[in-house]
Specification:
single chain, 275 residues, alpha/beta, five-stranded antiparallel sheet, 30% helix, binds zinc ion
C-alpha cells in the first residue's frame, strides 16, 4: 500500500501568522519542527493502518520546509520546487491514497491564512462552478488518477471545506479559526495523537478506484483588473469580467498546468503596494 502525503504548512499545528510560514524567519524555524511533527504522526498512523510506502511531497512555498533529519525513517520525502504537478507531484505514480496535511481554506473564505496559491491578489477560484480551495483542485486531480483522499488536516475551516470535496475522508482540526491570523491551537502532543489515530483509521479506504477523466472549467478572480488582463495573455484563458478570467481544459492535469501559468503571470504583474 503506497500512500502520498501532500504537506502544506498553513494548516500545521500552531501556525497562525505570516512569519510562521515564511522561509528564513525565526518563527518559521520554530514551526518547521511542529510541521514535521504533524507529518511524523501521520506516517506512524499510516504504517499502523497497513501502509508499506509513504512519500511526503512538500507543498508549501519554496517546498523546502520539513526537516529530513527528523523525518520518520519509514517515509521518503520529495523536497524542493519546480515540479510539474507541484503540490501533487507523485499522484500519477501508482499511489493508493493521498493525505492533505496542513491544508487551509481557499481564497476569499474564512480560515487561518486562507488563500489559493497566491497569498493574496486572488480573491476566488471556481472549479466547475464550485468555489475551489487548493484541496478541491488537488482532490479533482487525485480523482483523475483514481486516487482517494484519505485524510485532511488543518484548521476547522479546512476540515469543513474537505467535507464538500472529499466526504469520505477523515478530518483532523488541529486548531479552531478565530480570524485569518488567529486560532485556538491544540499543543503538538494532542494534535499528533489525533492525526496518528485518524491516519490509521483512514487506511480502510486506501486502494485505487476507477480513474475519472474528463474536462474541467476553472475561473479565477483577482483583486485588480490588470491582473485579469495579464492572465488573459495565457493561451485558452479569456477575460470574462473586469477582474475575472476563465478557461476550459480537457483534463484536470491540463487544468492545473494552465492554472499554474495563470498564477505565475498574475504574480509577475503585481506592482508594489497598489497590487
Ligand atoms: Zn497552500
Amino acid at each position: 500500500m503506497r500512500i502520498m502525503i501532500s504537506a502544506d504548512m498553513e494548516g500545521a499545528t500552531g501556525v497562525t501568522w505570516t512569519d510562521d510560514v515564511v522561509p528564513g524567519t525565526e518563527q518559521w524555524q520554530r514551526f518547521r519542527r511542529l510541521f514535521t511533527g504533524d507529518v511524523n504522526a501521520c506516517v506512524a498512523g499510516l504504517h499502523a493502518g497497513g501502509a508499506t510506502d509513504v512519500l511526503v511531497n512538500e507543498a508549501h512555498s519554496s517546498q523546502r520546509n520539513l526537516l529530513l533529519e527528523d523525518l520518520d525513517p519509514r517515509a521518503r520525502m520529495l523536497t524542493g520546487r519546480h515540479k510539474p504537478l507541484s503540490m501533487m507531484q507523485g499522484i500519477d505514480s501508482g499511489v493508493d491514497g493521498v493525505i492533505f496535511l496542513g491544508y487551509h481554506a481557499g481564497a476569499g473564505q474564512d480560515g487561518v491564512l486562507a488563500h489559493t496559491y497566491l497569498e493574496n491578489s486572488i480573491t476566488g477560484v471556481w472549479l466547475d462552478g464550485e468555489p475551489a480551495s487548493e484541496g478541491r483542485l488537488n482532490a479533482a486531480l487525485a480523482a483523475e488518477h483514481g486516487v482517494p483522499v484519505l485524510l485532511v488536516t488543518g484548521d476547522d475551516k479546512a476540515c469543513a471545506d474537505a467535507e464538500g470535496y472529499a466526504p469520505r475522508a477523515r478530518r483532523v482540526a488541529v486548531k479552531e479559526c478565530v480570524s485569518r491570523y488567529a486560532a485556538i491551537c491544540l499543543p503538538p502532543e494532542r494534535t499528533a495523537e489525533r492525526i496518528r489515530t485518524a491516519a490509521q483509521a483512514a487506511m480502510v479506504h486506501a486502494g485505487r478506484g476507477q480513474p475519472r477523466p474528463g474536462g474541467h472549467r476553472v475561473e479565477v478572480e483577482f483583486d485588480a483588473t490588470h491582473l485579469a488582463l495579464a492572465a488573459s495573455a495565457v493561451p485558452t484563458v479569456e477575460q470574462i469580467g473586469p477582474r475575472r478570467v476563465g478557461f476550459d481544459a480537457p483534463t484536470m492535469t491540463e487544468a492545473m498546468k494552465a492554472f499554474k501559468v495563470v498564477t505565475a503571470v498574475a504574480a509577475a504583474a503585481i506592482e508594489g503596494s497598489y497590487g
